[in-house]
Queue: 2 jobs
Job 1
Amino acid sequence: MSWIILLLAGLFEVGWAVGLKYTDGFSRPIPTLLTVTAMIISLTLLGLAMKELPLGTAYAIWTGVGAVGTVIAGIVLFGEAMTLLRLASVALIVCGLLGLKFSH
C-alpha cells in the first residue's frame, strides 16, 4: 500500500509543479490555493509512505515521478520540446525508479 501512496504523492507533486505555472507568481488566488493544496497533499502522502519505505528510496521515487510527470505535462500542456535526447533522459530516470523499486 505504501508504494501506491508514494505514487499518488508523486502525482500530486506533478500537480503542484504544473500549478506553479498557473499561479503567475502566486498572484492568482484560485490557482495558488489549488497549488498549495496539492503541495500539502503531496507532502502528507510522502510522509505516510515513508512510514514503511526507506527514506532514500521514497524520496528519490517521489522526485522522480514528479520530474517525469512534469516533463510529460510540459510537453502536453505547454508545447515544450519533445526531442530524442529529452525522451531518452526521461527513460533513464524511469529506469532508475524501477531499479529502486525492485531493489527494495
Note: The mean pLDDT is 96.
Job 2
Amino acid sequence: MTTALNGLKILDFSTLLPGPFATMYLADMGAEVIHIESPTRPDLVRIMPPYANGQATSHSYLNRNKQSIALDLKDPASIELIKSRISEFDIVVEQFRPSVMQRLG
C-alpha cells in the first residue's frame, strides 16, 4: 500500500512533546522517521507514567512507526556518522536551543 509520504526520509532530533508529535504524524503518513536519542540522558517522556508492559505509554505513542538510534552528540564519532549520512534525508527536525546545531556542525 502506498501512503502519502512514502519515500520521504526524516531525521528526528526532537524530544518531549511538540517535535515527536509532529514526526509521529509524518511517520503515520508513511515517512521513514529515524529518531535520534541520547544514550546518556533519557527523554523525559520515556520515564513519565503511566506505563504499560514496562514502557511509558506516552513514549510508545509518540514514537510509533519510527526507528530509533542512540547517539551521543558530544562524541565526535557520532557527529561524523550523522554528517556522512545526513544527505540521505529530506527533512531534519530538531528542538535544540539556538545555535546548538551550528555547534554540532
Note: The longest strand covers residues 32-37.
